[in-house]
Amino acid sequence: MEILGSGHEQVVFCSDAESGLRAVIAVHSTALGPALGGTRFYPYADEESAVADALRLSAAMSYKNSLAGLDLGGGKAVIIGDPRTDKTEALLRAYGRFVEALGGRYLTACDVGTSNADLDVVARETRFAHGRSEAYGGCGDSSVLTAYGVFLGMQAAAQHCWGSRSLAGRTVAVAGAGKVGSHLIGHLADDGADVVVTDVDPAAVERVRARHPQVRAVPDTATLIRTEHDVYSPNALGGALDPGTVAALPSRIVCGGANNQLATPDVAGQLRDRGILYAPDYLVNAGGVIQVEDERHGFSFARARSKADGIFDVALRVFRAADEEGVSPAVAADRLAEERIRSVGRLATIRLPG
């Protein structure tokens, strides 16, 4: 997923010995605007692994932001360390100064290992931190619209496959009952779907079942995959869709909130060969970034949700293009994102007065 065959525009290494900060900021593309992407705080085995993750994730953000119709490019940052033991005010503020030093080319937000409260601290040193807590005028928990967008993408897939967007009477297998997964299950329950769920944390499953007693639980993902279902929804770790999983799935649709679901790019073709409609993750999980982006304009949840409604139509457009072009939806989505980057990004070459 490398835009138009070009590489990253900028990779910045950040180090502050006193606070212990070691971070990498990757700016993939600013063709559509400043590069927006979260900050991941993770105990990488080495610097090489951290750089690879930043490069991969920032490229995905360029595509996500483009398909979401945002005037934003793609970027990502990773902080090397254990967020449970290494995260301090000094470290977060040191990181904020590095973000500020980029002058707005990179806009940061939350990701794995960082929270709204962390971004409040980062924002004490930079104007370019978003995804802040509601107490500071931010958008709060972005998993709310992430899950909503996944639900809309699933409805679009149902419309494409079965002629009706309703999931009533369909069985949806949900892997992961964290923030996104639990919100998604709420939408599915309201729509009348039959839900089967699993999570590595039994307490997360129990919290879901306390709210939705009709939800069935299975002990692990291997069992979930073997359970008869119409839609498979990965909402936990990336790489969940590998050749073995795809071969075993009884699903007609795969649609979930996890990032980087395809273990390798050719898995998209394997899904298509099996007659399984894949809703590209960076398309359907864009509700969160839409929620975060709206913070730049003085956050309005109603406005952000209205923007996220567009995920349904874009997903339908991708599915139709995939059929017409004889390619997987992953390829069709890439092409649509790249075309917007080309056609809209080139407008910056039209000089304005001053």
From TrEMBL:
Its domain of life reads Bacteria
Keyword entries, A-Z? NAD, Nucleotide-binding, Oxidoreductase
What Pfam families has UniProt attached to this entry?
A: ELFV_dehydrog, ELFV_dehydrog_N
Q: Where is the active site?
A: K76
* Keyword NAD appears in the UniProt entry: yes
Check the record and name the InterPro entries matching this protein: Aminoacid_DH-like_N_sf (IPR046346), Glu/Leu/Phe/Val/Trp_DH (IPR006095), Glu/Leu/Phe/Val/Trp_DH_C (IPR006096), Glu/Leu/Phe/Val/Trp_DH_dimer (IPR006097), Glu/Leu/Phe/Val_DH_AS (IPR033524), Glu/Phe/Leu/Val/Trp_DH_bac/arc (IPR016211), NAD(P)-bd_dom_sf (IPR036291)
Instruction: Name any Gene Ontology BP term.
Output: amino acid metabolic process
For this chain, one GO molecular function annotation is: oxidoreductase activity, acting on the CH-NH2 group of donors, NAD or NADP as acceptor
Q: Which residues form a coiled coil?
A: none
Record-annotated Glutamate/phenylalanine/leucine/valine/L-tryptophan dehydrogenase C-terminal domain positions: 140-349
* Residues reported in the UniProt entry to bind NAD(+): G176, A177, G178, K179, V180, G181
What family does this chain come from, according to its entry?
Belongs to the Glu/Leu/Phe/Val dehydrogenases family.
Q: Can you say what this protein is called?
A: Valine dehydrogenase (NAD+)
